Every structure is written in C-alpha cells, then in structure tokens.
Amino acid sequence: MSSIEFVKLDKVYKGLNSFHAVKGVDLSINDGEFVVFVGPSGCGKSTLLRMIAGLEDISGGDLYFGKTRVNAMAPKERGIGMVFQSYALYPHMSVYDNMAFGLTLEKKSSQTIDQKVREVAGILQLEHLLERKPKELSGGQRQRVAIGRAIVRQPNVFLFDEPLSNLDASLRVQMRIEITKLHQKLKTTSIYVTHDQIEAMTMADKIVVLNQGQIMQVGSPLEIYNNPANTFVAGFMGSPTMNFVQVNAQGSQMTPTPCDNPRSFEVPFQHQGPATLGIRPEHIELSPLPGALAVECQISVVEHLGNETMLYLTSELCEQPLVVAVAGEKSPQIGEDLTIYLPAERCHLFDANGEAVTRLETSKPN
Amino acid sequence: MKTLKLLTGRALFALAVLALLLYTIFPFYIAVATSFGAGTGEHVYTPAYFDLRNYLSVFKEQPFFHNILNSALVSFATVAISLLIAVTASYALARVHFRGRTLLLLTVLGVSMFPQVAVLSGMFELIRMLGLYNSLGSLILSYTVFSLPFSVWILTTFMRGIPKDLEEAAIVDGATPWQIITRIFMPVLWPALVTTGLLAFIGAWNEFMFAITFILSNENRTVPVAISMISGDSQYELPWGPVMAASVVVTVPLIALVLIFQRKIVEGLTAGAVKG
Amino acid sequence: MDTSSIGAQGTKTAAKAPALPRLDASAGRAKAEQSGLSRQRIRTAWLFLTPMMIGLAFVAGWPLLRTIYLGFTDATLSNIDSYSFVGFENYLVYDNGHWYGLLADSLWWKSVWNTLYITLFSVSIETVLGVLVALILHAKFPGRGLVRAAILIPWAIPTVVSAKMWGWMLHDQFGVINDLFMTLHIISEPIAWTVNPDTVLGTIVAVDVWKTTPFMALLTLAALQMLPKDCYEAARVDGIHPIRVFFKVTLPLIKPALVVAVVFRLLDALRIFDLVYILTSNSEDTIVMSVYARQALIDFQQIGYGSAASTLLFLMVFGLTLLYIFATRLKLDGSGDH
After folding, report:
1. Which residues form the domain of A333?
2. pLDDT band at C336 (very low <50, low <70, confident <90, very high)
3. For residue A328, is it within any domain?
4. Of B21, B116, B176, the CB nearest to C150
C-alpha cells in the first residue's frame, strides 16, 4: 500500500502544437484512499493518471509514492496495476494467461502463479472462464479479467482509466458496485479517472475536479456538491447543471442585473459588486417559502424522466432558461405560467472571478 | 424487355470474366501443354503425349534438382533473416517516437526503389571482398537487404494498427520491449508475418539479375537462371519442351502458395502500397 | 509491500541498465528528467534499428556510393583493384574532334528512349486494364474468389518463366499467337514478334502488361472495397448512369490509391531487366537502361563506364522517388501518431 504525493506536477507536450496538459498540480492521496479524477475531456485527468503509471514523462515537479520519488522509475518498478478503457486484454492468450502474464515475467514459480491467479479468479468469479480467450467473453467479463490482471500482482496502487465507459448502462452500475466492494476488501490506494460525475459521486472517498490541466477542487463528494469552490465545479458537478444568475451584490442584498424591474433579496453572504448567484434545479421550490425570491416564469420545455420532471423556464432573471426539477407525477404544460421560489439558504454565491464567496454561518441549510 | 436487357448484361459480364480468365491462365496452360509435347506437328494447343520425358530430361541433363534446392535454401534464408531484422526495426519505427523517425522511414522507402543495376558494381566488389562470389551467401545477403525495406514497410503499417493500450498493458505488466515483441506483437501479428514472409519468398524465388551475375557454376545457380540457361543442340533453337517443363516445375509451388494465401498476399500488397 | 522496497528496486534496476551513450543522442537532448520508460524506449528503438541500418548501409548504401564513385574511374572487371580517376570522361569527353562517353553514345540514348517508351505504354495500359479488371472483380458473382486467385498467377510467375512462356508463344514458326491470329485472319503471314523491329517493343509492352496488370487490379480493388456504399446508393436513387457514376464518383475517390500504385509501377518499370534480357537478349532494338548498364559492366567488363550508366538510371529513379515523397510528405508526418 502506498500514499501518493504530487508536488507541482507539470506536463508539456513539445513539438509543433506545444500543449501544456498539466499545470502545477499539487495533491496528496492517502494510503488506501479511493480517489476519482473527474473533468471534461481534455482536462488532463488521463494524462495525470498516465504520469502516475509512468506511461508519460513528467515534465516538471515531483511525484512521490510514500517517501520515494518515482519520477524516473519505469512502470513495473512503481508497483502499479492498471485497468484500461479498452480492457487491452492480450487477444491470443486465455483468461488464465492474461492474468498470469505479469507474474510469468517476474519469473515466479508456476505454483505461486497458479495459486494467485486462482485466488483472484475466485474473488472476481472468473473460475469458469479461465480457459477462454478474450473474444469469447462478454464486455462485463472482459472488464473483470482486466481488473483481475491488475490485482493479481498485488500492486501498491490501482489505476483505472475510464474503465466503464465501454459498457452499457445497467452493466456500468453493476461494475461500479463491484469495484467499490473490491476496494473495500483490498483497501489498496486507487485512482479512478472518469468523465461521469455519477461514478465520481458514488465511488470516491475523494474527488479531484480538473479543468484545463489544473485542479479546480479537491474534496469528498458531499463537500463538492454542497460547497463547490467555483463556478466551474458548481456547473460541472450535478445534473442537470446549476442555474446561474448574474447579480449585483450590496452586502447581503442581491439584485439580478438583467431584470427590467430590479428587486433585491437577501442571501447569507457578504459581498460587494457584480457576482454570480447559483442554485441547483433540485433546490428550487414551487410553493412559497419565507425569505425566498419569487420569480414569474413561463414553461418552454418539459422533459419527463419518470421519477422527476425537468422544466425549462424563461424568465426575466437570466437569458438562459432556468431549470427546475419537480416530482415526476406533476404534468405541467408548455406555455403555462408558473411562479418559482429560490430559497436564500440554498443559494451559492461566486465573485466576479468565479470563486465561491464564503457562506455566513448564521443560517444553515436544513 | 427489361429481363432481356438484364440477361444480355449478365451474358456480357460472364463473357468478360471468361476473357479475363483466359487472358491470365492461357499462357500457363500453353506452358503445361508444351511440356507434354504441344506445339509439334498437329498438336498446336493440345498435349501430344502424356509421359514425363521433358521433365526427366530437365533433371537428367542439368543439375536442376540442385538448382531447386539452391532456390529453396536462398529463399527460406532470406525470409527468415529479413523477417527477424524487420520485426524489431518496424517495432521501433511504428511504436516509438524518436528524432529522425520520418527520415529513416523515407530512407527505407527510398532503398526499396533502388534499381538493382545501380548497386551491381559496388555489390560485386563487396561480395568479392567478403569471399562470397559464386556462393549462395552472395544471394542471401543481397536478397535480404533488398527484401528488407518492403518487409519493414509492410510490418510498420501493421504494427501501427495495434492499439496503444495493449502495449501499455504489457508495459505495466513489466514486459521489456523485446518481450512485448515476442510475446504480444508477434502472436497478434502472425498473419502479417505470413504475408510479409510470402512476399519476400516470392521475390527471392524469382530474382534474376543478381543470380546471374554473382553465380558462375551450374551447381550453385538458382532456378530462374537455370531455366534461362537451358539450351539445345543449335544456338537458335531452344528445346521448348524441357524449358516449359522446368518452368512448370518452378511455377507450381508459387501458384499453390498464391491459391492458398491469396487473401493474405493481397492484404500485404495493399498494406505496403495503399496505406503506406 | 512498503514504499522503501519500491525505492530499492528502482535504484537497482537503474544501476543494471547498460549505458549506450552513442545511441542516446536524442534522449540526451530532451530534459534530463525523463522517466525510465521513455529513455529506455528510445534507447531500445535504436538498438532494434541497428541491424537494419547496418544491413542497408553496408549492402545498399555502400555499394551505391561505390557505383557512383566507380562511374568516375576507368575500372574494368579484369582489373578491378587498380584504376584511376577520370572525372566525367565516362559521361562525356571531347577528344580528337569527336565526342565520346555515355551522353554521346546513340545506343545509350536508344536505351533511354526504349525504357521510357516501355514504361509509359506499359503503365498506362495496365492502369486502364487494371481498373477494368478491378471493376469486374468488385461485382459479386459465383467463383469470384477463384478468379481473384487466378489473376494473381501472372504476378507470381517468375519473370524469367513468363518471358520464356511468351517467347515460345510468340515464336515465329510454332508459336500459338501466330497460329491464332492467322486462324482469326488478323494477320496473313507469321510475324517474328520478338525479332521484327516494328513489333518487338510493342511485344515487350504486351508481355509486361500481362505480368503486372494483376498488381494494378488488386490495389485498385482494395481501394474500391474501401469506398463508402452510401455514395452509390445516393447515385442510384438519383438515377445517374453507371458510367457517369464511375467518372464522377468512383474515379475521384480511388484516385489517391491509384496514384500510389502508378508511382510504384513507374519506378518498377524504369528498372525493367529480366523480361527484355530473356525475351530479346542482346538485341539493340530493345535495349533498355538496365540491360545497357549490365552489358557494359559484365559483358564488356567496363566497370567504370557501366557504373556511370547505372548512376544515371539511379538518378532518374531517385528523382521520381523524391518527387513522390515530397508530394505525400504531409501524409507521412501525420501518420503513426501514438
């Protein structure tokens, strides 16, 4: 097992289209932690993972496993196991040989190899598939073999590079749970890269949100959800995405700027000047609440998800439609007028640079 | 009316296919027929007898059996050596980023375009220097180097097609580049190796200019030269029966290879040219 | 496993790695802080390339340079070890009121002309034929696989054999071609195809076309099979005549592949040797550059003069190759981005 320390890690791709993929990343990962790197494509999350694996050179900064600096170590010296998005099973080898390959290269005795492979096959319920070739397996089975290949050598760190994105939806949920269970059993430090925020929220001990090669926020899933550090995290995590309203702040009084008839309302923040107010669709109410801002809207689009219904509303608050999540049994009509209520204590406030303004502790969200 | 048009279309197409088949196969048919006596007297297109006299005479009057062995030895050695060198080289060219890679690829492509006669005098010197004149070694050496560029070229194309993840999985598993080649890439790429080997084999089996220049004695000749040297009693009249018999003997293995590996050969030719 | 043991492993392996300073040039220029992988990979790459580079350098590069050098000397086969430098005398020299040398030899120019004639006609005819054959094989019909294998036969037959075969078929007295053509009343009396100066070049072109059309056809067929189907379906829906579809849709789409195939064949045809050598041996009517050069080198034992001729042929092929490489350069740079 191993903790991991990133100190000002940099990755620059040289050449004609020189590209700064990872910019000065600092991060500590505790021993045994399950960490998820999440972000839009091109944010540097996979590059970062591959730097940990040793598959990409580190252009600057230091990477430590425990107290050992591993910048110059080859992948096999780092004691890692990796699961690839495409599974990357060796097509000409049986499941057994796929899992045994790494151990064979270490010149372990065939008895040790057999014991370890069978043990891992047991954990992953692969015993009956050991003699098959990868092409005779289903997607989920291939994924399990890929995981088995990674854990059979008992690595210090597991690396997962979007391992579930090739699976269909129901299988993805099932494998998600299996990986989580496996981590609870093995307690090996794991780093998991995904662009799927549901995977991030459900699996992680710690989420690292990345954008354009920089860390946007590090925190537990609930911290990220409840206290996004900036507009990027607020907008990226959560589905549908958070509503943003441009406001002018005077102390705790917020005045929406695009409105023709400006009305101010009070929120538990202190700020001066232009700012962005954010509120999640699931926190907007349809019935009056004390201290909530009432907004008259018109329904422009209705999306039925079954358990929930998403309403896209036009209002004078902002140019983009406001999104509201309501219970699934309601059946509003397009074109209908509607009054919505924004509870003050559910709001988030971001300054002109998009950084979160600290919430005053006087009124807590219930 | 419409069916009539369709039918004439079909008939014309069948005719075209038939003409194509006739065009490609007829010369070889004539060669076979001649080896059984066609072309003499009334038998212009059909065999005159069905015994092996011409075949026997080829093997009796010259060291033709020896020549076949020479050709086989030279061709197999060429295939083995050039594949061995090409596999490692194409791994480096296809999978590793390094300075000068494009230049090297272009050089390889350039060498595959060399006219043989352009290196003939220099090669002649080299072979005499190495003491390989009039030995099969001279042919193995020159054929290997001449088949190397296209082997590297074709294998590079195929190696580029292997997913990056597969190689990285092996790296994480602790495989060295040599282990990646021998334990992952070669098993995955064996069809491409067969293809490349076949093309190299056919090239070596058919080569003429080096073979006629570097080999002096009858016993050391390869079959193309041996066939070109078959002569009759008079300077102006070739013994066509034996010549055709020898031609058939030399060509039959190639035709067998072509029929068996048709798809693979086409793949290799295409990989070398279209995708390259 | 604890972290200190990983560290120990790391240093051990690093110490074990052999030092290859000369091959490490490109890695050394990059940042010193490269992971073991990248450095080792580049080092291994050069190691893997070494046998090929040695082979090409010694058995292709060196002989080529020697050929070019010998072209400026008076070396002969019988006296290959002592020769003197003669400058451009093998190419062109003015002596005693006359021009001598390769460029003043009308036979050399005839060989150039013949080579170009054969190349031009052979490649253009086989391109047209090859496309036609490819179109036939692209259609679905029973036995297509067999026909496709059958057209590979001319390609696989050794050139020496095909030259002998055709030499026999074109024989003036017993050849089947004369018999066939006379039966069909195409000709009234037998023609000595490979001897008659009026027919011999055309004959060589015809035999070369027979041998190399399969290559053209298969490359074209591969290109045809990669074409998107929807174009054709759209054209069929629009009711466009198939011949128009061919010229407006198919031909432009397969053009890149066709160009590559034509370039390959052009380079191949320029160095034509076996066919001409066997079919017409030493006839001056059909002499081509390779035959001319080899004749000077081996038969006349004039290594210097023959090397000069070889060098000129090489320069022609080299120029054409360079032209081709520059035309496709971008494609090469873009490929293989892993």
Report:
1. 241-350
2. very low
3. yes
4. B21
